[in-house]
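Session log. Operator J.P. requested a structure for one protein chain; no other inputs attached. Running the standard single-chain path with token output.
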Amino acid sequence: MTAPLDFSNWVCPAPLRDYPAIVMGHGAGGKLSAELINHLFLPAFGGPRGPLTDAARIEIGGARLAISTDSFVVRPLFFPGGNIGELAVNGTINDIAMMGAQPLALTASFILEEGMPLDQLGVIAESMGRAAQQAGVTLIAGDTKVVDRGHGDGVFITTTGFGLIPAGVNIGPEQARPGDAIIVSGPIGLHGVAILSVREGIEFGAPVVSDTAALHSLVSAMLASGARIHTLRDPTRGGVAAALNEIAADAQIGIEIVERDVPVPPAVQAACELLGMDPLHIANEGKLIAFVARDDAERLLAAMRAHPLGRDATLIGYATADHPGVVVARTGIGGMRVVDTLVGEQLPRIC
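Structure written below.
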């Protein structure tokens, strides 16, 4: 049989999801999250304005700025490798960096629950300040509110970040094109499994530490390489699967990855096998996915591997003109499977 595979009918359409109230899955980064944005928020705010990127682009006085707002409601507040404070700073910086921008400043808003221990809040605030200082970013404004006991999970943090997009840089999901090489900057799934191990008290044979990190310096090194980078995305909620599906939909391309080439740490693989999860759906907080012109893939890999945050960068697949909007993976036994986005939640409250 030589005819090309037709993936268009491999994913059965889900029945219309009719929820009269918000459920946790609406915040999990999967299909419910997309429906909430596309069918409630966008119409209410005046309709679509182009691809939904990690940050908005706006031009002011001839300068192109990237602006992103994000909220952090992770539970527990402290986890192996970090806490909600540095996660808020790093996560917002990364959204800006995925537009090719250099972060300039952040604002922060705190929703504090009555009874939150001040010593814990102090550690979180100090972590935020230290993460911002290490990234060369200034916290310039903020706000604080307190809610009744039992209504806040200790602290919720909302941040807004501002960054400057260099001249000549034009990065976005709609820029991905058939033939692009797809690179992931390192091992996936660490943040989600780190959160799960603490929350559920499960050990997976080896300690798992969150990968939370600010990626703007890695992005700067990637841009300096001269490689033709079309798209960048940090695979947070919904993991690599959600990120690839969003790019495939925005650019109307197909994506084919090789499952064995995706770097999955043994502890993450063990956790997923134990709990019946797919590593491609597990959240990350210090990794990025890059779509780059195929001829520039080796140049970009060399630049990434020379940076501490990209030393394990790996080529995992290519974009294709076939099956637009669909992501598929070649399995270890030579078959193909569709990599879809989850409808609801798999691992709640990871960021």
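Operator note: Helices lie at 31-44, 84-97, 118-135, 190-200, 216-224, 239-251, 266-275, 297-305.
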